[in-house]
C-alpha cells in the first residue's frame, strides 16, 4: 500500500508542474478580468469562475487528481491544531502592523479592491465565497505547490519559495497584503507539514479571511 501511494505521488510530482501553471493561469486570467469589473456581482462571478476552473484543471489529470484531492488523517491531536490556530493570532497581528507601517511610508502599488456586496450576496460571499477561496488556495497553492516544488525537498527551501509565490499570487492587492499573505503562507505550510492533513489549514484560512472581511 505504501509503495503504491509513493508511486502515485511521484507520478503526480512530475505531472503537476504543467497542470499547476495551467491552474494558476486560469486564476490569474480571472484576476485580470476582475480588475475591470465595478459591480460586486460581476466581480464575484469572475472570482468564483477562476477558482473553480483552477480546481477543475487539477482534477483533469488522474495522477494529479489522486494526490491533490486525497483525504489525509491527522498526525497530531486536534488540541495541538487548536493551539496552532491560537498561535496564528499574534503572527497575523504582527504582519498586519508591518503592512500598515509599510503603507505609511512606501507606495503600496495596490491595483484593485475587494467589492462591498450587501444583502444576500454579502451572506453568500462570506460563506460560500470565502470557503471557496480557502479551499482553492490551499489545494492549489499549498498542497499542489508542495508537490510541484518537490525538487527543493520538503523543508525550509520549499516552505520559503511556496510562501513567496503565495504572497506573489496576491499581486493585485498591494505590497502590504502580499506581505501578510507571505507570512500566512509560511505558517500554513508549516501547519500542513505538521498535521499531515490539509483540512485544518483550510478551516484556519477560512476563519482568518472571515475575521478580516468582517
TrEMBL record:
Enzyme Commission designation: 3.4.-.-
Domain CAAX prenyl protease 2/Lysostaphin resistance protein A-like: 121-211
Key words of the record: Hydrolase, Membrane, Transmembrane, Transmembrane helix
UniProt-recorded Gene Ontology molecular function terms: hydrolase activity
Claim: S-adenosyl-L-methionine is one of the keywords in the record: no
Keyword Membrane: yes
Transmembrane segments annotated in the record for this chain: 42-64, 76-99, 119-135, 175-192
InterPro entries with a match to the protein in the record: Rce1/LyrA-like_dom
Stored Pfam families: Rce1-like
Domain of life: Bacteria
Name of this chain's protein: CPBP family intramembrane glutamic endopeptidase
Native organism: Dongia sedimenti
Amino acid at each position: 500500500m505504501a509503495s503504491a501511494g509513493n508511486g502515485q505521488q511521484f507520478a503526480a510530482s512530475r505531472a503537476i508542474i504543467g497542470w499547476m501553471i495551467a491552474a494558476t493561469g486560469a486564476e490569474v486570467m480571472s484576476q485580470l478580468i476582475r480588475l475591470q469589473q465595478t459591480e460586486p456581482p460581476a466581480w464575484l462571478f469572475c472570482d468564483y469562475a477562476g477558482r473553480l476552473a483552477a480546481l477543475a484543471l487539477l482534477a483533469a489529470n488522474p495522477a494529479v487528481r489522486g494526490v491533490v484531492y486525497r483525504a489525509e488523517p491527522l498526525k497530531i491531536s486536534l488540541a495541538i491544531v487548536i493551539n496552532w490556530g491560537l498561535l496564528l493570532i499574534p503572527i497575523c497581528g504582527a504582519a498586519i502592523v508591518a503592512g500598515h507601517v509599510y503603507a505609511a511610508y512606501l507606495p503600496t502599488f495596490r491595483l484593485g479592491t475587494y467589492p462591498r456586496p450587501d444583502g444576500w450576496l454579502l451572506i453568500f460571499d462570506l460563506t460560500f465565497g470565502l470557503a471557496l477561496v480557502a479551499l482553492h488556495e490551499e489545494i492549489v497553492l499549498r498542497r499542489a505547490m508542495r508537490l510541484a516544488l518537490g525538487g527543493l525537498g520538503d523543508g525550509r527551501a520549499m516552505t520559503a519559495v511556496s510562501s513567496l509565490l503565495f504572497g506573489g499570487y496576491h499581486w493585485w492587492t498591494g505590497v502590504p497584503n502580499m506581505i501578510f499573505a507571505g507570512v500566512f503562507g509560511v505558517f500554513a505550510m508549516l501547519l500542513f507539514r505538521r498535521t499531515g492533513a490539509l483540512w485544518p489549514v483550510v478551516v484556519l484560512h477560512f476563519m482568518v479571511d472571515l475575521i478580516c472581511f468582517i
